[in-house]
Amino acid sequence: EPLIGRLLRQMGAATEVTVIATAAVADWLGACDAYARAIVVDSPSPVASLRRALDEAAPGMLVVATADAVCSDSAMTAFIAEAAAAPDGVSLTGVTRYCDDERPLYVHTDPDMYVAALADEPDERACVSAGIYAFDVDTARRAIAEPSLTRLRDFQRRLLATGPMRAVDLGRVYDIDRPADLDAANRYFAS
């Protein structure tokens, strides 16, 4: 199953799904009758893709996931439900305690899982950003407005500066950078 196919299957609990995609992925979506709307963008960065998604998004809470973040189906379903129930003004960031990323973004939390800091170094309750987020569209638009912003981790830091952010533990999440990562994720989730 392609990563985008897995993610679309997991997003089945969402009311609307939009995919920022290359032309090849958009063609694949059309060929498999995926229920997602595709916006074709040759994006120079994940932040540029996020800006485009925010341009198209309706007001309210938006769940965003990178296609290379692979978690269990139940974790994604729970995250979407938590996003739908989040209090106004509270952003969510999915986290994992499993890390095989070369440059992880560490999420420092208080005992109630509210984010205290997003850092390049771990703390005593180290968890790592998992590439799955939820936030208010208008708040995110303000946080991403700075044109020099080019990295998702910097967007997350700006988002945290705008208001409370809660970390949601997604269990094991794999960051798929190489075929061996996908093999490991498939073995783990099949067991």
Q: How would you characterize the overall build of this protein?
A:
- By secondary structure, the chain is an alpha+beta fold.
- It is 37% helix and 25% strand.
- It has seven helices and ten strands.
- Strands 3, 5, 6, 7, 8 and 9 form a six-stranded mixed beta sheet that branches.
- The longest helix has 13 residues, at 73-85.
- It is globular.
- The two termini are 17 Å apart.
- The model has no long low-confidence stretch (mean pLDDT 84).
Q: Describe the main β-sheet briefly.
A: 6 strands, mixed
Distance between the termini: 17 Å
Mean pLDDT: 84
Task: Estimate what percentage of residues fall within beta strands.
Answer: 15-25%
Percent range for helical residues? Answer: 25-40%
Write the H/E string, N to C: HEHEHEEHEEEEHHEEH
Computed CA radius of gyration, to the nearest angstrom: 16 Å
Structural class label: alpha+beta
Poorly predicted regions are none
Helical run tally: 7
Shape: globular
